[in-house]
């Protein structure tokens, strides 16, 4: 719990720390850490019900495209909110037809959902198709730190949702769904409702982080916004950091996104080989993720 | 409270398992449902708690037809289910498992529930902070029953509680169920251990190939030559 707040405090104050010539670079890295950590937490929120989602790239893309398309017409914050809502609607649609599926079957269905959306983004007349979609910066570009603090707000929301789900009876409902659906049912848990709510909340956060990403990247392409790599990153971070916790994805996000950037700087060509090797080592020797090093218990 | 089953038929896919089962359980009574492997005992319990849809027939709780109600809804009406094979949450502590039993069925009554369960099974109280996965088989069965009791059911369905337990522990668990029934809960006990079940139960039903072939007071069943031959091997 204290770790979570220390983490948030560090990121809230990052722009005011004396970072010297590294400031612009570190703030950029920091922004991506915030966004992808929020995405990872939103994936974990769904994973806690036992559902392996490969649709988080799609929710991210829906939020990104929704925000990008609406931004010129309605302004920054409404565009973000509507983009997230679009992701939420996508989640309700996906969830209402697939949440009776379990584990791997749900994963495959969510992957198909993701592919369909990417095709739509490529073919629809108003998305810019394969050429891509230019997106203006937040608030007309007048506030240099706006993107960073929007990303911070998305992460803060993700943390708040995750902590709520951890501290309330919702945790028990999620854990029961994950471990045995039949038992959860006879203990009075409304399984479908719990799974659908988790997926909806997760998709809202993923959509928000996609929206902020769009305003930072200033340009979206279907391959980038709906990429499977995004969905994979969303699940690698919690597994690396520690599943079904708030602190695990936070730690995992900082270490993995930071590591990726650092390796890119130091090794340059072929840095992904080292990155991959480190992941393999982590899976082999840290089955409970980084949190396992701290002696954390999960269940 | 009274649970009543009328002409229930159900199965899996095209395979029919139950061919018209009638039975009843009153509040405060321990009823044994006996039968060999594959007779349809577990299937019947699953149909009662709503995990399996009946094809024909009715399940009534105090006269209310449960047709179309979800398992969660039935549990809220007072129908508890201890599933076969315990199915605890192994990475949660004993007390967390119990809390889960109350969280959605009797929120706010946790304290009362703990007292009742710990009075019934004092060893669970000693192990309340231990992970459920580290308990012995008998303790796990006690915890599974305790978890169902935390929801304050008025009818409790218990599936094979003596499975894999030593004779002494099996007896301890069945006597605890007798105690639960004395407290006013109607208990429907599914068992393969016929001799022991007929010792503690008041009435019993014998299920064969999806049909009730015998029913009556437990003592009469224990004396019945067919039961003695087929299940007690006397």
Automatic annotation (TrEMBL), chain A:
Gene Ontology CC: plasma membrane
Superkingdom field: Bacteria
Keyword DNA repair belongs to the record: no
Topology with respect to the bilayer: Multi-pass membrane protein
Membrane-traversing stretches: 77-97, 104-126, 146-165, 196-215, 235-259, 271-294
Pfam families named among the record's database cross-references: BPD_transp_2
UniProt GO molecular function: branched-chain amino acid transmembrane transporter activity
Subcellular location: Cell membrane
Claim: Protease is one of the keywords in the record: no
Keywords, sorted A to Z: Cell membrane, Membrane, Transmembrane, Transmembrane helix
Name of the protein described by the UniProt record: Amino acid/amide ABC transporter membrane protein 2, HAAT family
Source species: Thermus arciformis
From TrEMBL, chain B:
Family matches, as InterPro entries: AAA+_ATPase, ABC_transporter-like_ATP-bd, ABC_transporter-like_CS, BCAA_Transport_ATP-bd_LivF, P-loop_NTPase
GO biological process: L-amino acid transport
Keyword terms, alphabetized: Amino-acid transport, ATP-binding, Nucleotide-binding, Transport
Transmembrane segment boundaries: none
GO molecular function, one term: ATP hydrolysis activity
SMART domains to which the protein is assigned, alphabetical: AAA
SUPFAM superfamilies, A to Z: P-loop containing nucleoside triphosphate hydrolases
Origin: domain of life: Bacteria
ABC transporter domain sequence ranges: 3-234
Recorded family membership: Belongs to the ABC transporter superfamily.
PANTHER family documented for this protein: HIGH-AFFINITY BRANCHED-CHAIN AMINO ACID TRANSPORT ATP-BINDING PROTEIN LIVF (PTHR43820:SF4)
Protein name, UniProt field: Amino acid/amide ABC transporter ATP-binding protein 2, HAAT family
Native source species: Thermus arciformis
């Amino acid at each position: 719990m204290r770790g979570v707040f220390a983490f948030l405090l560090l990121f809230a104050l990052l722009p005011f720390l004396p970072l010297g010539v590294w400031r612009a670079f570190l703030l950029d890295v920091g922004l991506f850490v915030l966004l992808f950590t929020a995405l990872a937490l939103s994936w974990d929120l769904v994973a806690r019900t036992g559902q392996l989602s490969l649709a988080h790239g799609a929710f991210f893309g829906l939020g990104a495209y929704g925000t990008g398309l609406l931004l010129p017409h309605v302004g920054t914050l409404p565009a973000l909110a509507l983009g997230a809502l679009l992701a939420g609607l996508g989640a309700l649609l996906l969830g209402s037809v697939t949440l009776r599926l379990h584990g791997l079957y749900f994963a495959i269905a969510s992957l198909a959902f993701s592919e369909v959306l990417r095709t739509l983004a490529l073919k629809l007349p108003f998305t810019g198709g394969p050429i891509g979609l230019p997106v203006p910066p937040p608030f007309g570009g007048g506030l240099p730190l706006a993107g960073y603090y929007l990303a911070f707000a998305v992460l803060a929301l993700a943390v708040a949702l995750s902590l709520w789900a951890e501290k309330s009876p919702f945790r028990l409902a999620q854990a029961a769904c994950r471990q045995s659906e039949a038992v959860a049912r006879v203990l009075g848990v409304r399984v479908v409702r719990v799974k659908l709510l988790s997926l909806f909340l997760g998709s809202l956060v993923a959509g928000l982080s996609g929206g902020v990403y769009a305003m930072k990247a200033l340009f979206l392409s279907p391959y980038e916004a709906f990429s499977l790599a995004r969905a994979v990153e969303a699940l690698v971070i919690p597994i690396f950091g520690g599943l079904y916790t708030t602190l695990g994805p936070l730690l995992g996000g900082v270490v993995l996104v930071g590591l990726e950037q650092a390796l890119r700087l130091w090794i340059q060509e072929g840095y992904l080989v080292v990155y991959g090797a480190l992941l393999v080592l982590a899976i082999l020797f840290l089955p409970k993720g980084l949190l396992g090093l701290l002696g954390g218990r999960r269940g | 409270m009274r649970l009543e089953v009328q002409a229930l038929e159900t199965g899996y896919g095209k395979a029919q398992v139950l061919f018209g089962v009638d039975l009843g359980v009153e509040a405060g009574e321990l009823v044994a449902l006996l039968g060999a492997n594959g007779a349809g005992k577990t299937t019947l319990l699953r149909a009662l708690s709503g995990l399996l849809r009946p094809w024909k027939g009715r399940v009534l709780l105090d006269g209310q037809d449960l047709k179309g109600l979800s398992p969660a809804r039935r549990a809220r009406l007072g129908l508890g289910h201890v599933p076969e094979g315990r199915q605890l949450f192994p990475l949660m502590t004993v007390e967390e498992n119990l809390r889960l039993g109350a969280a959605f069925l009797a929120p706010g009554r946790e304290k009362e529930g703990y007292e009742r369960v710990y009075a019934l099974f004092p060893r669970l109280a000693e192990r309340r902070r231990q992970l459920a996965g580290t308990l012995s088989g008998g303790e796990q069965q006690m915890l599974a029953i305790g978890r169902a009791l935390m929801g304050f059911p008025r009818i409790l369905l218990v599936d094979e509680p003596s499975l894999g337990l030593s004779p002494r522990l099996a007896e301890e668990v069945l006597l605890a169920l007798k105690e639960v029934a004395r407290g006013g809960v109607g208990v429907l006990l599914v068992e393969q251990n016929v001799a022991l079940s007929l010792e503690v139960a008041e009435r019993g039903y014998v299920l064969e190939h999806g049909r009730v072939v015998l029913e009556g007071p437990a003592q009469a069943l224990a004396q019945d030559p067919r039961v003695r031959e087929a299940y007690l091997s006397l």
